[in-house]
Amino acid sequence: MTEWVPDVLGDEFEQRTLPLGTDEQGEVVATLVRALPAPLPPQPSGWERFVTRLRGESDKSQHPVLDGVDVLYVHGWSDYFFQKRLARFWTARGARFFALDLRKYGRSLREGQTPGYIADLATYDEDIAAALEVMRQDAGESARPRRLLLMGHSTGGLVLSLWASRHPDAADAIVLNSPWLEFQIAPLRAAIAPMVELQARLRPMEAAPQIDLGFYARAQAAVMDPDDVMQTNPAWRPVPAMPVHAGWLWAILHGHRTVAAGLSIKAPVCVMLSARSALPTRWSEELTSADTVLVVEDIAERALRLGPSVTVERIDGALHDIFLSRKVARDEAYARLERWVVGWAAASGS
Question: Does 50 fall in a domain?
């Protein structure tokens, strides 16, 4: 493992390269980013709080609701981690925040590699395992066990859902931001899957025609908060999106089929979605207040197959990335997330 070094996001963040061996395209790495929040004020001990109550005095201290919690965030397709605001939400509540740029994405992309390409989503188990090992090392010796909260956006939500089902005791809670749990034309998935599988076997690197017209990126720019502008690296988050290859598409469809059959996630899951979808065939103002990537009704239905404890939150006016929406919708999303997280933390003994 390499050491922590300054990250492209500035002084609040550091990154660490996670070597994962080599493949036919050369060196393979993942990259773990950690947030460096301002230190929390010293908290009184349990004895000090007890004495305060005996004296009849008000305990003005506020124990961080997510003390002892580690958050691991995984990005979506044609994406990487850049959301400083999201990291601050978690660290302000006492959690340690980490984000993982998967192999061949963002910080992990190396010259000569096919961006984002993977032939089996289970291969990401190696990336996640490497990240969790560094997170454990980073925690040092602690008498109190830490809890793991996973957060995934879009394709990252699919990856983490499948991972959590295969590792049923690893995560304590999961938050999914518009997870890609089903193909956009759900009734056709079974029909096209054999053709895609054959193409993946014969010509896995064949690229599908590009259908991204750039409207989703335009919608994000239209609703961006001028007081908190988020700048992205166009090489890591291109417009239009990265090409889709047959081998990768087969891996995604296989993941969707697995979700449709039902997963076994033991941890409570919060799924956050826009209230509506919009078809981005031409530009309109409607695209600034809807999910133009997924069919949210299908995702809401598939979410109920993740496990026995699933909450679905529908945010009016939200984009595909809920936390990049217009301020009103974004504020509502953070309020809903806080309500769910506080409830989970209380129920799980934080």
Answer: no
For residue range 11-20, list pLDDT tens digits in order: 999 999 999 9
Q: Give the pLDDT confidence score for residue 42 in this predicted structure.
A: 55
The answer to whether residue 58 sits within a structural domain is no
57 in any annotated domain? no
Tens digits of residue pLDDT in 190-217: 788 888 889 899 999 999 877 788 999 9
State the Cα torsion 61-67-72-76 to the nearest 10°: -30
The answer to whether residue 334 scores a pLDDT higher than 90 is yes
Domain count, the chain: 1
CA distances from 271 to 3, 168, 181, 214 (A): 34, 18, 11, 26
Distance CA 282, CA 278 (A): 10
Phi and psi torsions of 38, nearest 5°: -65, 140
Structural Rg of the chain based on CA atoms: 21
Mean pLDDT of the chain: 92
Q: What is the pLDDT of residue 226?
A: 87
Handedness of CA 17, 21, 27, 28 (dihedral sign): negative
Is residue 234 reached through a cis peptide bond, with omega within 30 degrees of 0 on the bond before it?
Answer: no
C-alpha distances in Å from residue 279, one per residue of 144, 214, 292: 48, 13, 6
Residue 128 to residue 113: CA distance in whole angstroms: 20
What string of DSSP letters covers 294-306? S-HHHHHHHHTTS
Please tell me the distance from the alpha carbon of residue 152 to that of residue 180, in angstroms, as a whole number.
Answer: 10
**Would you say residue 328 lies in a domain?**
yes
Contact 161, 281 (CB under 8 A): no
* Beta-bridge partner residues of 222: none
The torsion angle over the Cα atoms of residues 316, 220, 181 and 109, rounded to 10 degrees, is -160
In 3-state terms, what secondary structure has residue 310?
strand
Query: How close are the terminal C-alpha atoms of the chain, in Å?
Result: 32
Q: Which domain range does residue 196 map to?
A: 5-41+64-347
Range 159-172 average pLDDT: 97
